[in-house]
């Protein structure tokens, strides 16, 4: 009833995260019915990306070269190393234009239930790098339960090696109103209050 | 900051229905990070499907041949033609094992706001086929506003050519309880009541 190549396409689409059998079928129909050109472009993009994109040997971010352009840039301050979870977080940091140091991208967060431990995050590579080139490590993992746990684990690991470690501040966002912020954030903002210089 | 091939992959993934910039990024990261084998299989499935799958010249369903195996089967009753919206609907009909006739797959439904009219649904092909091989047409489009409108349009078109047209019944589902069914369905079930044979 269904051509075998269509069945294969539907089954292959399920490798995408969050795509179940119904969505995969809808996607396959859409591509074959209304966007065959898009499907061909997607096929080429998948092949080109899988064949050419690897991880930068220094910062672990996605890169087409052995060492990515950011790590090679002489304009970056090598005395600072910012640890983020994902490449998207690195992009946000760069867009904020608040940081001129280097990065280490974990490509995830500690999540024992999903089988993601210290080994999967290449923490031994991070540790080796920090010991070879001493620097201040700024932990910029997310303020979620898993992101916090990852930061805590990293802080313990690095401080045991006498590395200076800091964590980006938690507090009210720009334009934030006390009335609308959640109590956890407010409590943390009070706890981490800073003296006002005269 | 982001390799160009990664940007291209994220942009190409947006040809999938329901995939916005954030999901496309998540999908690209997932494939490169955790499932490169799946990405390669998907690339091949996309290429193979777009190159080999076309529409059956008789029933308009997806097919790898000029005429699909269902249309060629001598076991099917050619005096019945069931019109469905999508290939998935045809599969449901086949699974119900209640029908041994042939099909015509609209690959959509009338939806003027989305620019889908009689021409996009190849209704002239359906009409030609019915006039060449007279048969009873069973309308099995969905009982949605657009599916009903499509059925109404088709019924008017076909009856003007003296074709016998029927619509699958609306009523309470198997195991349905009056207390739980919506009033529209109940009203229709009363309206379409059938005499009980003694």
What do you see in this structure?
2 copies of one chain form a homodimer. Chain A has 198 residues and is α/β, with parallel strands linked by helices. Helices cover 45% and strands 12% of the residues of chain A. Chain A has helices at 4-13, 21-34, 36-52, 69-72, 87-96, 123-132, 145-159, 183-191; strands spanning 54-55, 62-63, 77-84, 101-105, 136-139, 165-167. A 4-stranded parallel beta sheet of chain A has the order 4-3-5-6. Chain A has a two-stranded antiparallel ribbon with strand order 1-2. The termini of chain A are far apart. The relative contact order of chain A is 0.08. The model of chain A has no long low-confidence stretch (mean pLDDT 89). Chains A and B meet through helix 1, helix 2, helix 3, strand 2 and helix 5 of A and helix 1, helix 2, helix 3, strand 2 and helix 5 of B.
The overall strand count of chain A is 6
Question: Count of DSSP helices of chain A?
Answer: 8
Describe the global form of chain A. Answer: globular
Q: Helix and strand succession of chain A? A: HHHEEHEHEHEHEH
Gross CATH architecture of the largest domain in chain A: 3-Layer(aba) Sandwich
Question: How large is the radius of gyration of chain A?
Answer: 22 Å
The major beta sheet of chain A can be summarized as: 4 strands, parallel
């Amino acid at each position: 009833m269904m051509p075998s190549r269509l069945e294969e396409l539907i089954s292959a689409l399920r490798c995408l995260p969050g795509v179940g059998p119904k969505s995969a079928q809808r996607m396959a129909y859409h591509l074959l019915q209304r966007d065959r050109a898009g499907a061909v472009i997607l096929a080429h993009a998948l092949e080109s990306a899988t064949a050419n994109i690897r991880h930068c040997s220094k910062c672990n971010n996605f890169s087409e070269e052995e060492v990515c352009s950011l790590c090679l840039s002489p304009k970056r301050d090598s005395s600072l190393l910012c640890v983020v979870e994902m490449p998207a977080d690195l992009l946000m940091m760069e867009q904020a234009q608040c940081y001129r140091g280097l990065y280490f991208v974990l490509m995830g967060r500690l999540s024992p239930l999903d089988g993601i431990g210290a080994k999967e995050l290449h923490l031994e590579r991070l540790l080796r790098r920090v010991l070879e080139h001493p620097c201040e490590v700024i932990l910029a993992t997310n303020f979620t339960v898993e992101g916090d746990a990852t930061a805590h684990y990293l802080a313990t690991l690095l401080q045991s090696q006498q590395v200076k470690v800091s964590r980006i501040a938690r507090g009210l966002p720009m334009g934030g109103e006390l009335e609308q912020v959640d109590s956890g954030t407010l409590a943390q903002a009070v706890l981490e209050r800073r003296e006002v210089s005269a």
